[in-house]
Amino acid sequence: MHSSQCSYVLDSWFSGEYFHRTPQSCEFRLILDMFQSYVWNKIATERIKRWGMRPVVGDLYLDKETQSDADDGVAEDSVKVVTDVTSVNISEIVLPLPGYNITYPQNEIGVLYEEVLRGECVELSKGNIPEATAKGSYRKLIQRASKLMWSAIPEEGKLKSNVSNDPVVDAARFTFELKSGCYATMMLRELMVTTMYRDTCKMDE
After folding, report:
1. Which key words are in the record (predicted)?
2. CA–CA separation, 104 vs 113, rounded Å?
């Protein structure tokens, strides 16, 4: 669904009679989750564009002494504001899924959240309709896949090739694990784009 369609549906359901006729609707919950993810992805893209893979003052990070995983129910007091960039690793940086019960970054990215939500005409505040509220949560900016393995798949009728001698294969099988909220398609996209980009650079040399 296009972002403008998504925000229109949200706005209509927040204030319209249709929402009142479908309390605790699974469909509405799905759209709300989708909208939060849309905002998060948009903000995350801009965050990387502006400052790359390094913490900056005003970022939010997960205090590893009080919380180990940003997707397993983060306590609000586990999220801290970066004041000393030398003491925080990029793997600890989190961005909020927008809602009424979260802390926003204390820098340009926090302002960007306000601009994006205002542009979509959506206000995720605690109102009179419990089902229409979103408390929000946090998601790590950078997630690493674990237990990553791969193997070449030989073509039918061909002998199994030695990958160490012939690194170019026609097909491959990948297995890995990701945290909740991460998408395997995105991980594969990053892997393939990175590989294709390196190959393109070699051709241009």
Report:
1. Isomerase
2. 8
Q: Which residue has the tokens 């909208």?
A: 35
Express each pLDDT in 28-83 by its tens digit.
777 788 888 889 999 999 999 999 999 999 999 998 766 544 445 566 678 999 99
CATH superfamily of 3-140: TruD, catalytic domain (3.30.2350.20)
What are φ and ψ of residue 62, in 5° steps? -95, 120
Whole-model pTM: value is 0.69
**Which part of the chain has CATH 3.30.2350.20?**
3-140
Do the beta carbons of residue 138 and residue 79 sit within 8 Å?
Answer: yes
- Distance of CA 160 to CAs 84, 150, 172, 173, 197, Å? 52, 15, 12, 14, 27
Q: Where are the alpha helices (DSSP H) in 52-183?
A: 108-119
Instruction: Please report where in the chains the tokens 């089902």 appear, as a residue.
Output: 131
